[in-house]
Amino acid sequence: MRAMRLEKQGPPEELKLIELPDPVPAPGEAVVRLHACGLNHRDVWIRQGLYAKIQLPCVLGSDGAGVVESAPEKSWVGKRAVIIPCYGWGPDPRVQSRDFFILGMPRQGTMATSIAIPQTMLCEVPENLSFNEAAALPVCGVTAWRALVTKGDLRKDEHVLVTGIGGGVATLAMLFAKALGARVSVTSSSEAKLAKARTMGAIAAVSYKEKGWEKELVTQAGSPPSLIIDGAGGDGLNNLIGAAAGAARIVLYGATRMSPSKLDMAKIFFKQIDLRGTTMGTDDEFRAMLQLVARARIQPVIDRVFPLSEAVEANRLLEQSAQMGKIILDCTS
Questions:
Q1: Which CATH number applies to 142-277?
Q2: How many angstroms separate the CA atoms of 265 and 43, rounded?
Q3: Which residue of 114, 188, 212, 242 lies most exposed, with the fewest beta carbons within 10 A?
Q4: Rounded to the nearest 5°, which phi and psi values hold at 239?
């Protein structure tokens, strides 16, 4: 099989297209001929040495969709499948176990033409989705679902603020929240992304680069957000606390801007703000997310599709965070 393997930490050019032996399934495993792979910032962080317990060389990629070639249950053979991107969550749905792992380091990931995984990680692709669209879902989809529903306690008709629109999780969070009956506002530093979000139904769209953007967002939306979904953190967290309604929930799924240099503790307790952390999700949450996608006929936003052989260029684009939605690799070309 062909695969893009990260040989060592460094720039995108450290990803090398190589030939590897076809995967041999262990007991209980299925083999999937991959048609599409979705990229995630996890791939960038591993390449840059910003991830825990890095083991190289490794084939990266956590999102994948394709056709099942072999499986312990023969009824799976020939079916279109999207892969649950993580394994070993454990018995407590509130938090992952120490055995939890995500595909694409140390285990072989989806930047390849074929992969062997436990059969329990297979889900059928919703009929309304192409392989590319299905591959846009796994990591970002389950993260967005858990942030909104499990940790965010999303309520119909409430005002939800999704920060950093254009990123994979943020874009799906907006689509999911709207499908679940919420009113959604967004932030970004890109006017083009804000304009796109307005066409997707955002009730407010503001640049977080503008001073006092919190007041502008509330003015556009007509009310402060009672649920905020954020993957950036940093000092911008204080802006979110300022924008939030009383008793709002702020759900944090990432920290691309790392930790804030200071935290407005007075506003947190005076406004009764509830800060909640989340990451990834359980198999049941993944399946619930797919059911919503199928029921509401949600179409994931795809920025660009590259052939597998151009994964270096695709990863360079991902590193720039210039995309609107997901970047996909076509594993068949």
A1: 3.40.50.720
A2: 34
A3: 212
A4: -65, -40
Q: Which two tokens stand for residue 4?
A: 């893009």
Q: Which CATH architecture is the domain 2-137+300-330 placed in?
A: Alpha-Beta Complex (3.90)
As annotated, the residues of the chain forming the CATH 3.40.50.720 domain(s) are 142-277
Residue 286 corresponds to which tokens in the numbers above? 């993944």
- Distances from the Cα of 247 to the Cα of 141, 262, 265, angstroms: 26, 21, 14
Rounded Cα–Cα distance for residues 135 and 65 (Å): 5
Residue type, 56: L
Location of each CATH 3.90.180.10 domain in the chain: 2-137+300-330
